[in-house]
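Here is a tokenized protein:
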Amino acid sequence: PVINVAAYHAYAQAGLLLLLILMPFKCLVCLLLVSNLPAIMSYSRPGVAAAVRLAAIKDPLVWDRIAQQYKPMLVEKKGKDLVAMDNWCEKLSVKLQSVSSCISKDELVKIIEWKFAKGRPRPYMKKIKANSDKEVKECSRAAFLEAQNGDINSALNEITKLQGVGVAGASAILSLRRPDLVAFMDDEVIEALYSGKRAYTKAIFDIMNDKCTEISEFLGEDWTPRLVGKSLWTAAKLSACGAEDLTLVDNESEMSSKRNSKRCRKSL
């Protein structure tokens, strides 16, 4: 057959023109499809995705197993020195919940040193040490009185009057005095429970602390906001160091079978 060269070129040019017209439309369609996909969260602290998963888990057994790994993760983070600092904070917490109405300057310094060792060092220690013992006792006494009355925002206002003590530092102090009302603002806990950019503001603290409180109430009377925060931090550290990620366990099968076997052992 005879090929009409002119017609062939005309069809080819028309096809090319149509392709050029449709390409931007295809790109637009692709863009719309991608924009409707679930967003993949990125976190600045390693392992936070595991803490996010834990926050959504309702099985107390999973939380218990992760909470039991808190001390080993302190060792993983900074060794026995951090464990010793954490043990000191626990003893101070018992003291503050019973007889003490304030903390001293030396105790403030140790709490902040623990905070920096557990998280990231900050250039505020010089300011912390610039506070007098009298100032620390006066501010902490006023803060603890507000905390005792359940007014955590007012307690934050009082304790942050001290030099170098921001909202995160204040949460560390108040969580020792009222672990039943206050969770510590670990970086991993903030990122797990707050959807925006991590920051250390009262507004973000309120969101984080409310969620820790809500989770603790669901898990039962043995749980406090502070313990919830510690467990979320532990979940992130377990994931970050490559240990068994307990948040990936099939809760409906494996965990239920563990509960059943536990009941069987009790009945024997």
